[in-house]
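Q: Hi! New to this. If I give you a protein sequence and the SMILES for NAP, can you show me the bound structure?
A: Yes, paste them in.
Q: Okay, here:
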Amino acid sequence: LGSVGVEVILGSRSYERAKDITDQLRNRWPDRQLPIEPGDNLAAAEAELTVVATPWDAAATTVASLGKPLSGKVVISMANALTRLGTEFIPLIPPRGSIAAGIQQAAPQAMVAAAFHHLPARELGALDHPMEADVLVCSDHAEATAVTVELINRITGLRGIDAGPLSAATAIEAFTPVLLQINHRYRSQASIRLTNIKLA
Ligand SMILES: NC(=O)c1ccc[n+]([C@@H]2O[C@H](COP(=O)([O-])OP(=O)(O)OC[C@H]3O[C@@H](n4cnc5c(N)ncnc54)[C@H](OP(=O)(O)O)[C@@H]3O)[C@@H](O)[C@H]2O)c1
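A: Thanks. Here is the predicted structure of the protein with NAP bound:
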């Protein structure tokens, strides 16, 4: 996001860890002048839009503790509930059907959208070449879907796709272990691309 000019506050439970990661990113891409600043999780939640990027089992509790600053804002959930047994990646279905639904329940005043689940971090972070992928977005709030799709479309090579209401997050999240399985088998960093779809 920083590479396309979005001002980012990198949240963390520890400001020092956020600063360390911010410094690593700036040092890795010195010519990019990435507009990324370190912060704590509260600082990230006070931003215009927040992406929740904790492990799946910490996402709802993290958001619940930030309900007030997230109120009325778009919150993007990218967590995938899964476990690994040997070489097998297994989806875990959370009690509310998806992590995104749990986040929406934890912050009922926020406008939760689910997105970014199928993008391998290493490939997305390789700023020297664009990543070609479609990003499925779902939400019960039209504004959250529109803002999230617009954000995704700013990143060269990515297409944001409106995949419907938040109930779609169950299937979107559960598909990630399939992708991980494929990437493990083929030693790839594959994501998804839909065919025969004309986007406005
Ligand atoms: N990695 C990928 O390729 C990828 C792709 C798509 C979606 N995702 C999803 O994105 C999320 C983040 O993935 P990741 O690979 O970046 O995970 P990660 O490195 O394990 O965790 C990200 C950050 O979450 C914070 N965190 C860890 N445990 C926490 C806890 N108990 N409570 C609150 N914060 C905690 C940590 O930051 P601090 O210690 O600094 O607070 C950590 O650096 C996951 O839900 C994953 O399913 C990942």
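A: The CA atoms of residues 20 and 38 lie 8 Å apart. Let me know if you'd like me to explain how to read the tokens.
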